[in-house]
Design goal:
Jelly Rolls, 11 helices
Length: 280
C-alpha cells in the first residue's frame, strides 16, 4: 500500500548487509510511515512493538521476528510506549536474490511477514546476528563469504523453527476486521460509522484507534486504497477515466481526479500517458 511515508537510510551497509541494535527505555511512535530500500528483519528481544504494514496489524513480542520487504511502508503505533530491546538486520535485494538462488527453500521465508521461534532457536538466531555484526566490523578479505554463509544459516534456522503463530489482542482483531472490510469493499459507499460498527466501536473511539494504528484517518486510508486500485486499472485495462473512477468508488470524475493528483502528484490522464511511454 502506498501511503505518505519517508525513506529511512539510518544504517550503513557492508557487503550488502547491516545489523543494528537498540535498547530504548522511553520509546516514541513514528509521526508517519517509513520504508527502506532493503529487506528488514526485526528481532524483538524484550518489550512489545505494534506495527502496521501491508494492511495488517502486527503486535510483535519477544522471540518473534518481522520481515518487511523493500519499499514497503510501515508504521509503529504511537501509543505503545513500552520499553524494548531489539536487533534489526538489513539485507539488500541483490544479496537476498543470491541467497535464494543458492538456497531455493529461502523463498518461503520471503513469503512470510511474521515468525515465532522457540526460545532456544531465537537465542541461536541472535548469536548468528552477533557473528554478522562482527564480520561487518572486521571487514577483511573473507568477510563477504562469511556474511553470505552466516545469513544463509540464519534464514534457514528461521524457516526450520517458525511456529507460524500470530498473537493479537481483541481490539486489534476488531480493527483488522474493519480494515479487511475496507480492502474488500473499497468500491462501495463506505462510511466511518459502518466500519466502526464492524469493529464494534463507537464512532469517536474507532476514529482515534484507526489513526493511531495506521497514521491515517479513515477517509485518507480509504482514498489511498481506491487510488491504488485505480492505478492498477489504468495499468492493466482499457477502461476510461470515468469508468475507473466509478469502479473504485468515487461519485464524480472531478473528485476522483482531485484525490488522484493529491496522492500521485499527477492527474489520472497524465499518469496513463506516462505508463504508455514506459511500455516497450
Amino acid at each position: 500500500m502506498n501511503y505518505t511515508s519517508v525513506l529511512d537510510t539510518d544504517y550503513k551497509l557492508y557487503c550488502d548487509c547491516a545489523v543494528s541494535y537498540a535498547k530504548v527505555d522511553d520509546p516514541k511512535g513514528m509521526p508517519c510511515a517509513h520504508y527502506h530500500e532493503d529487506y528488514e528483519l526485526y528481532f524483538l528481544i524484550s518489550g512489545s512493538r505494534k506495527y502496521f504494514f501491508s494492511t495488517q496489524i502486527f503486535t510483535i513480542q519477544p522471540n518473534q521476528i518481522m520481515l518487511i520487504k523493500p519499499n514497503e511502508p510501515h508504521q509503529v503505533n504511537i501509543n505503545l510506549n513500552i520499553p524494548y530491546e531489539r536487533y534489526v538486520l538489513y539485507i539488500t535485494p541483490k544479496l537476498m536474490s543470491i541467497l535464494c538462488k543458492d538456497f531455493p527453500s529461502l523463498k518461503h521465508v520471503l513469503a512470510t511477514p511474521f515468525f515465532n521461534l522457540p526460545e532456544e532457536a531465537f537465542k541461536k538466531a541472535i548469536k548468528l546476528l552477533l557473528k554478522l555484526r562482527d564480520e561487518t566490523t572486521l571487514q577483511d578479505s573473507l568477510s563477504n563469504d562469511y556474511i553470505k554463509a552466516i545469513l544463509a544459516e540464519l534464514l534457514l534456522l528461521i524457516e526450520r523453527n517458525n511456529t507460524d503463530f500470530l498473537s493479537a489482542n481483541k481490539k486489534d482483531l476488531r480493527l483488522q476486521n474493519a480494515i479487511d472490510h475496507i480492502i474488500a469493499n473499497y468500491h462501495e459507499n463506505l462510511t466511518l460509522d459502518n466500519c466502526a460498527k464492524i469493529a464494534c466501536m463507537s464512532h469517536s473511539h474507532f476514529s482515534r484507534e484507526f489513526h493511531k494504528t495506521t497514521a491515517l484517518s479513515f477517509k485518507e486510508f480509504l482514498n489511498r486504497i481506491r487510488i491504488d486500485n485505480a492505478c492498477e486499472l489504468l495499468e492493466t485495462t482499457p477502461l476510461s477515466i470515468t469508468e475507473i473512477s466509478q469502479n473504485v468508488g468515487f461519485s464524480t470524475e472531478s473528485h476522483f481526479g482531485y484525490i488522484f493528483k493529491s496522492i500521485k502528484g499527477v492527474s489520472p490522464t497524465v499518469y496513463k500517458k506516462q505508463l504508455l511511454k514506459t511500455k516497450p
